[in-house]
Amino acid sequence: MKEKEIKFTSTIIENLKWVWKIWKQYKPMLFILISFGFISGFAIAAGPYVLKIVVDKISEVIKNDPKLLLAERKEFLMYIIGIGIFQFFAYLYPGFRGVMNHMLEYEIRSSVFKKLMDKTHAFFMKYRSGDIITRLTDDLSDFPKVAWFLCSGIFRAFNAVCVVLGSAILMLSIHFGLTVCALLTLPFCGGVFAAFHGKIKATFEAKQKAVSSTNSYLESCLSGIDIIKAYNATERENLRFRKIIDERIKIETEVVKIQSFFNSFFPNISFFGQLLVIAFGGWLTIKGTISIGDFFAFFTYLSFISFYAIDMAMFLISGRQAMVSIHRLREIIEDPREFPHHTDTVLLEDGKINRIVLKDIAVKLDEDAEPQISQIDFDIEPGKWIALVGPVASGKSTLLNVLAGTVIPDSGSITINNTELHRINRKDYAGHLGFVESEPVVFSTSLSHNIKFFRDIEEKEVKWAANISQFHDEVEGFNEGYDQKIGERGILLSGGQKQRLAIARALAQKPSLLLLDDVTSSLDADNEAKFLNTIEKELEGLTCVYATHRLKAAQKAHEIICLDSGKIVGRGDHKHLMENCDTYRKLVEAHMIDE
Amino acid sequence: MKYSRKEIFQDIIRRFRPFKSNIIIGIICTFVFTGIQIARPILLRWIIDIYVPAKDIDGIIYVASIYFFLLLISLISSYQQVILLSTAGMKVVNKYKADIYENILKMDRDYFSKNPTGTLLARIESDTEQVKELFSSHSLRLFTTFLMMIGICVSIYINTTGYAFYFFIMLLLSIFCLTKVIKRIRSTYDNVREAYRELSGFLAEYIRGIPTIQVFDVKDSVCESLDVYNRKKFKFQKKVAIMNYSFLAVLSLFTDTLVVASIIYFGCKSISLGLMSIGTLIMLIEYTRLLFHPLFHLSEELGYMQNGLVSLDRMYGVMGLRPEITGGTRKIESEDGKIDIRFEDVWFAYIGEEWVLKGVSFDFPFGNSVAIVGASGSGKSTIIKLLFRFYEINKGRITINGVDIREYSLESLRHKLGLVLQDVYFFPGTLLDNLRVLDESIGVENVSAASKKLGLDGFIDSLPEGIDSQISEGGKNFSSGERQIFAFTRALTYNPSVLVLDEATSFIDTHTEKLIKESLSKAFQGKSILLIAHRLSTVTDVDNIIVLSNGEIIENGNHKQLMELEGTYYEMRKLQNVEIV
Questions:
Q1: pLDDT tens profile A106-163
Q2: How many CA within 13 A on the CB side of residue B16?
Q3: Which of B55, B268, B269, B385 to mutate to test the interface with A (most CBs of A within 10 A)?
Q4: Quick check: A286 and B56 CB within 8 A?
Q5: H-helix or E-strand containing B418?
Q6: Under an 8 A CB cutoff, do B199 and A137 touch?
Q7: What are phi and psi of B549, to 5 degrees?
Q8: Contacts of A133 by beta carbon, 8 Å cutoff, 6+ apart
Q9: B419·A227 Cβ contact <8 A
């Protein structure tokens, strides 16, 4: 049974477990990142201390004999360059993190995409493809979302902790009171940053909302440019947009205010700490408690340590944002609307699809709704042609999807050659099946690639299939023939051409069962008849089930099945149905209105 | 018209003129802020060289007070600087958005076919946002950095002897190397963006296609294809990260280590000669940090600048476009809206000499109904596009009341024609706005009258907010039948002389179609109707059926005549109807 509404909830603990599950696969990397972060942090912390040593030595020498500096300066050089080389490696740490971010991004995207391949129709009804793409791109790649957080987010903060810790130890070795003062500035900096950030985020979201509403407004208006022009509405539309922009300026003014506050606070942040050192440290220096070198070391520590406090605060902030994105990713990964995995599947008997038996099939989209189809009970003998007719939403497409195995019935059974469909090896079944949906999906690649569609199909068969679907002549008309790329969503092709391309794709593997979902509607009437005759001739013994709303096409079948509200309301030939089936008769009458 | 560099520059100046005071005060604040930053190491020197040796506590309090005071001014000036200049930039950029949209709306129909909506949105939204970066924070930061460099060099020159030149050379050297490396990194970064674009494109296509992939069970191969794009992005990103951070590490080795080391080395000599104090040495070390650290972000800032400039060019490219079809000055003058249309030997090709229409001629007198039939690709819809002057014909002419339509103003021409398309289009707004296409000079009562004629009034009243109801995205809250009737109402509201229907009924079931047809013929009684039909059953009653094949009229006449002719129309008709009749 399907659940009414599957709600996915995740706690921070669960999300962190997910993060750990990913890192568990990269334990050596984890070890390197931790030790590297540790070393790098201390290297950075050691910088001011080395300068302090040098400054102290210089001032000591000056007191005695300034001339001696010339002899000592080579030693100073060694100190500075020594720590510099150490720091050089410390500065490579962010690059290392960056590479790791991208690697995790790559791995996660691959695995989620693979997972999507097993999701069912119901899943894709719930999540629009645009939404899924956003989760696989923005949520994964953007700063500071999943991939960034997983490595940089965590280890940047870790590095910051190491720097602060190292600095604190070195400062303590100089003067306790001054160190306590210096460290007290950290929670202040972090707190101010976090408080600001909350506000910034709110205004940023307000702006994002304004941007996306402008975008959807424009998209909607531009797609109707014919009507705008035909009704002379160009100038009126222009004025309307200007009003929208005026509103937007109001929103953005608020954004600018808060951002300016933030941007001006940021570069002045080191000012605070230095002020402290000048007052307190200056007094200590005069008293002789600390040396000039000590004073300078504190001055330097306080000019950069606050930035590491911000890094730590950033961890909490980006963590919160990343949790939202992690949740969004896990939501699609862990969604249970998946095709079940059967490991003990069997190959098709006889090497083709023969007898199909449907027993009391019912499909519901969700628990409360009326079933899409129910009480579907019939056999299809090999080589038989069956036409499905019925009003819109009578369940034709659902039934075809059940036959294709892309919709799993909630009750009843479907057997192929006496084996239940779900026990048949999926790849084997797919290899014998041709299924063309009413709105076929085509891909931006070449025509030939679209027909082959990742299968081992030879050029000869491609042409054969295109020929049958009456597409070959048009293909020849393209500049590049079968190598012609057809653009996003097949923009180069008309609706009818897309359907014929999809038919060729289905035929190319010479199926023994062909399912067509109202695909001939955009063929011209004469082409439609020609098409059905050709496949009958070319694919001998083919079993074909097709939905149509043209009675001419329906009459080609051995049997017409009439559906209404998901149930079979009549079966037989045209004459029989005209006499015995109300729905069928109404359909025919509607078609022959003018006769 | 294409904007030259000079014209672009002048236009930008013109747009910023209203914000003159913002800009002047903003720039003054920038100078103040920069000055304060440069003063900080000097104060440090005072403490070390003067007050500490003199053991002067009051001196320390004095410097601390100055420091506090400077901190306040620094905060205020940097806030003023950012807010004044950003506000100006933001307002100018929003004005750009509106201006670009205005210009795009004016373009020929052809422009919209060639440029997908996504591209146009990018011009209006993303490009202008990039330009905003150029006009606000980033150029501001670059300017500040530049001022800072000059200021620091000057300060070193005043406070020491000989070191300013050394700093200056080191600075130039770093900037020189930096620009070289930035170039390399940026070109790799372009690869990343390209790879990301390809990857997103692949995902967009194949996620939408997953049901199809499942049908053919080719998921393993598709996952392998993804891997190609996914890996490509990873590879370039890895390269950027490595290049970028190793360069920064080298830069820091150069500035933090080598420059500082050499200052100490040479400083020791100056000190030993009594030419320099230890405070000055520390001041120089501080200046090193102030001077070189902005360089670490320079690559980023320049990147934003460069993107901004590219977007600026694209933006002016769009603003410089002018439509080719502009229309004449005449107005269609006719009694009671009577207009006679005539196609005279019309030739048309979308591209080069690939003729879509080859010498089409027909008469369409007022009050007639004309249907155009033919196979897909025969040029049916093109006829409508030419009549509306969405495209310019190549040869021949179309006349209305004997005058070439090119002489009429576009507005006057289109006012006489009411278009109903296959895809009923709704733009965001209320139902009323949609029905009168934003024309507020058309009163609510006119719209209501039109909807009444088509039997739609009951339906509109049943909506929660009646005619003021908001239309949800693309009119999804209406059935296709309802949407179709809305489209007819829209046409009727405008009271056109000719109703033009492009396969307008193919989405409705035949029963609804019949109902619409009945109300239509009542509502449009006495007007001309031009119909492009796929379903031949709809054309039986029209006065004249034009059969198109490969851009030529091959048959012409009413249903009876054409059936008697037993030509193409007869064949098409036979195929489409059930034979048992």
A1: 999 999 999 999 999 889 888 888 889 989 988 898 888 899 999 999 999 999 999 9
A2: 21
A3: B268
A4: yes
A5: strand B417-420
A6: yes
A7: -145, 125
A8: B200, B203, B204, B207
A9: yes
How many A×B Cβ pairs under 8 Å?
Answer: 402
Q: What does the pLDDT read at residue B14?
A: 96
pLDDT in tens, B373-432: 887 667 888 899 999 999 999 999 999 999 999 999 999 999 999 998 877 778 888 888
User: What ipTM, to 2 d.p.?
Assistant: 0.87
Written as one string, the DSSP assignment of A190-214 is: HHHHHHHHHHHHHHHHHHHHHHHHH
Backbone dihedral angles phi then psi of residue A91, each to the nearest 5 degrees:
-75, -10
pLDDT given at position A592:
38
The interaxial angle of helices B510-523 and B444-453, nearest 10 deg, is 120
Q: What is the pLDDT averaged over residues B346-355?
A: 86
Each residue of B431-484: pLDDT tens digit? 888 888 888 888 888 888 888 887 777 778 888 888 888 876 666 667 766 777
Long-range CB pairs of A289-292, under 8 A, 24+ apart, other chains included: A289/A175, A290/A174, A290/A175, A290/A178, A291/A52, A291/A55, A291/A56, A291/A59, A292/A55, A292/A56, A292/A59, A292/B48, A292/B52, A292/B278
What are residue A513's DSSP bridge partners? Answer: A433, A543
* Residues 80-99 (B) with a CB less than 8 A from some CB of A: 81-83, 86-87, 90-91, 94-95, 97-98
Q: What is the pLDDT of residue A314?
A: 84
Interface of B with A in 362-401 (CB under 8 A): 375-377, 388, 390
Across chain A, mean pLDDT equals 88
The pLDDT of B260-283, averaged and rounded, is 93
The token duo for A420 is: 């239940």
Mark yes or no for CB contact A279/B509 under 8 Å: no
Q: How far is A278 from chain B (nearest CA, A)?
A: 6
pLDDT of residue A590: 63
B321 in reach of chain A (CB within 8 A): no
The verdict on a CB contact (< 8 Å) between A261 and B79 is: yes
Residues of chain B with C-beta less than 8 angstroms from the C-beta of A92: 245-246, 249
Cβ-defined contact of B264 to A591 (cutoff 8 Å): no
Cα gap A591→A223, rounded to integer Å? 33
Would you call B258 an interface residue with chain A, using a CB distance cutoff of 8 Å? yes
Give the type of residue at A53: I
- Is the torsion defined by CA of A239, A243, A248, A253 positive or negative? positive
Cβ <8 Å between B125 and A85: no
Q: Which parts of A334-432 fold into alpha helices (H)? A: 396-404, 426-431
